[in-house]
Predict the 3D structure of the following.
Amino acid sequence: MKNNVLITGTSTGVGFESAILFANNGYKVYATMRNLDKADALKAKIKANDLDIEILHLDVTSVTSINLALNIIIQQDGKIDLLVNNAGAGFAKTTEQSSIEEIKWVTDVNYLGVIYCTQAVLPFMRKQKSGQIISITSVGGLVGQPFNELYCGAKFGVEGFMEGLATYISDAFNIKITCVEPGGITTEFMASAIGKTAVDGQFATGEYLPIFERYMAGNQKRASESKEQVYQTALEVSDVLLNVARMENPPLRIRTSEWAEKFCILKTQADPDGTRIVNQIKESFL
Ligand SMILES: NC(=O)c1ccc[n+]([C@@H]2O[C@H](COP(=O)([O-])OP(=O)(O)OC[C@H]3O[C@@H](n4cnc5c(N)ncnc54)[C@H](OP(=O)(O)O)[C@@H]3O)[C@@H](O)[C@H]2O)c1
């Protein structure tokens, strides 16, 4: 039987491209999305290329919807081989000017959603004594950035969660754990972040505005100077996901581009892929 994969957030971007890539490379793909009205583009690809992809509803903030989707997979295949925690949403706004609802939302989608999906697959992978969990975090999961502190905090949370799992889940139950850390990706991510968080086109007002304007100018300068280095396509990031899925011993951490590697170097040079810290914790505690 083919290896199967559950991918979250496949309506657009990396989720969409990776669903197609994994199907083209021998996986049975369960492409999940929170809004099935957005499934037309993927349905067209499935039909045109006769892809082994089944589209299921799954909102990462709803444990009920996660369990419903997973039950379908287990009923059909009797197993789950790979979970790709891809769903996420950008958020750029000062902490002071964010509402409690916004703070909860950015944390739910980017952090708790990963935990809920992971918690749901673990009992099956543990019983199988095999499995793999890949979470797409970000360079923002290693380096805090201006106006992105709530998003970065959520991605840092995922990094810590995955690191903790890697210290015992992999050896005990043969479940591989990896964080894939992209820099910029040319998806709808920024546009939807701006749509959700900006008020009248601004992420900051009052005393924050001049700092925000400096940040935006710096961002534009950086992008115009080195767009091709900063940004990757969703397919390029999906290629990294497929490579990680094929590795016998995947690392805890992997950046997806040279730019991402350089951006994080002060945080990562002592232990680029997380192997040393995982080994040290295992030696200390287990
Ligand atoms: N783009 C970047 O520059 C960048 C950089 C570093 C890391 N990342 C990370 O890469 C991953 C993929 O992002 P992308 O660039 O492909 O962005 P994208 O095109 O905006 O895709 C995000 C996906 O997540 C889905 N999603 C949002 N909330 C959800 C929920 N509650 N339940 C299920 N799905 C939900 C979206 O669905 P809807 O269509 O329904 O909103 C969409 O399918 C994310 O984890 C993101 O944080 C992105």
Observations:
- Residues 8-9, 11-15, 33-35, 38, 59-61, 86-89, 109, 113, 136, 138, 182, 184-185, 187-189, 192, 234 surround NAP (CB under 6 Å).
- The chain has a mean pLDDT of 95.
- The chain is about 55% helix and 15% strand.
- The first helix runs from residue 13 to 24.
